[in-house]
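cache lookup: miss for this entity combination. No prior model stored, computing from scratch. Input as submitted by user K.M.:
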Amino acid sequence: MLINLSIDRFDPNCDRGAYKQQVKVEAKENETVLDALIKAWQQDPTISFRRSCRSAICGSCAMEINGEPRLACQTLLKDVVDSNGNLSLGPMFGFRRLKDLVVDLQPFFDSLKDIIPWVLTKNNHDGRMTPEDAAKIENPATCILCGLCDSELGDGREIGPAAIVKNHRLALDARDMLGLVRLQLNRKYPEEMAAFRENLKSFCPKKINLPEV
Amino acid sequence: MITHDVVVVGGGLAGLMAATTAAGSVDVAVLSKLYPTRSHSGAAQGGFNAALSEDDSVESHIFDTVKGSDYLGDQDAIEVLCSEGPEVIKELEWAGVPWSRTEDGRVAQRSLGGAGFPRACFAADLSGHVVLHTLYERALKLGVKTYPEWYLVELLVENGRISGLFVYDLASGRTEIIRCKAVILATGGYGRAFAKTTNAFANTGDGMTIAYRAGARLADMEFVQFHPTTLYGTNVLVSEAARGEGGYLFNNRGERFMDRYAPRKMELAPRDVVSRAIFNEIKEGRGVEGKYVNLDLTHLGEAKIKERLPQVRDLACRYTGIDPVEKPIPIEPAQHYSMGGIRTDLNCETNIKGLLAAGEAANVSVHGANRLGGNSLLETVVFGRRAGRRVVEMVSKETAWPELPGESLERAEENWKNNFGSNSPLDPRDNIFKIRREMNRTMTEYVGVFRTESELKQAVDILAGLKERYSTLKVSRKEEPFNYELIEHIEVGYLLDLSEIIALAALRRTESRGAHYRTDFPQRNDQDWLNHTIIWRGEKGPEFGKEPVSITKYQPVERGY
């Protein structure tokens, strides 16, 4: 089918603001948004966007697809293209735009340092962990740090959403000296946390579902 | 000018392991074309082999690896790999890796191909992902400086010694010079030379080509691993864990055809054996729709698939529309891994002083002619750690800075300028994407699982033509942020060099061993070919030589599964 891609363009060296560029590509409905974007790039190699694994594990191609936070490689065209073949792509909200679909990720990666982003292994750890304890950290450990939750739920003031996810993953680790004490760093009221968990579930590409603790 | 004692190039498992091992003792930085957590190590699913159980033994791991390598692996290196495995897994446990566990709380282990024991330590089917993120956490803890989205362009070598790096910062669009005493290349593989590959877009063999161009020796480049089970069409990886957990392969007649090829190991024969079997079934008309075979997991049940193979299920559902809980999934073999790489010794050192390599980019030769599942992840952490330890020794012993980059820098700047200008292609309709597509098709069709002299010669001719066309292409835009056209241009250049080397090495080796199968020479020939292929850059192109294989305990015998 013919896809009409509408891609946000912005070059800091010459553009005062962003504008939309229309590119038409031929693609199959079972192909991904990333496939279509790569075809567009091959027509106009000046379009900048990140991509790498194309299997939803590296998190590079996080962007706004028809205004929704998604990974381009994980999104099938048939799920997002309207009956006229229209599809709109923009950079993640809430991040400084560097060029076209590329945003500044450094503050996002730096935000992990707002927690203590590593396991502080207990001195008496014996190398074992029960399967039940292992199951508790499995889901939050699937986070790929794509940045979509910071884009969607971050308010720029408190600990960022991805840092909260990591904080939970570490707090629930039976090896960790601080354990649940870490959760005080989240600085969220229980009802705020409940809303956060629900919101996160609704769009997180890895379906991270933080347990209630 | 930026200076560091040591620069690790590549932010995947080998790179982060090396950097976090050296951090604290020397000033080490990580330079990576991606943010480190975006590295392709994260896509590894199956696990890390290590003989942890009382019923398993390091010796048995060594033997399986030697046999799996079709006796081309260096046995001294394999001994290091297998004996350091258990302590590195322990180190990762203390670093915080969220492993899957057994009932008594130990690290869970599963069977992977070619292994006599379930020895792959795993975290569901996200083993690479969780260790990558844990090592990234360790790098944060140790305050390792990273340069994300910086590209290595050239190694600066003065009088046979590393003196620095010529690099490109994607965000600023500018080149920089980094002065350093040692460099560890941990840049991964070159899967993107092939049309069908499990590899990420970033896997363009940068480190291998850059090292080769700087005078480092490559080895065993003809040995390319094709993973038997990738999703038909997209070639997204379906972990060997799917067969390790009990999955079956079926042809269009509903036969578990592996009994014809590996009656004892069946689906868990090594990858070279299974990939050839699948192609043979398809060739002989037993492929489903003539194109693929089925991987059946339905008998494992939903609970086990959810627990052990959640990512495989998710990927299959999304990219094929088939839920493996309900129906078999269509799979085909695709390029997956490079056994060949930058030749190193047991301490990861190369023939250039101050240059080390580890992980898939390196060839210390633990995999020989065929790698076993679970051994590449192990190699990244074992040899990443060794490289990290070695640079600490090197830097503390030799405190003097190498001379400033001089001639090598002039040459690098000259080469860099050559990328730019107005296009004057031989054919006005030519462009970099066309060249990449033709290279990809050539490699998959003529330098794939089955090889013959005539097809390899054809590949060599086509690649030579592509290189000529490539040399006339230029990039018009220069100092511009996030210039992915420039990156594409440079990466295709790397891949063309490597493709030519792979095809020539495959043409030269007139035998079949491990993943290198010549239909015109179907037997292994120990008399002439029980040796490594060594490759270096000559005046007119790659030159080839041989080096003996280290054989300590296990004399080559016929490999049967």
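stored under new cache key. Residues 407-527 of chain B form a domain with the Methane Monooxygenase Hydroxylase; Chain G, domain 1 fold (CATH 1.20.58.100).
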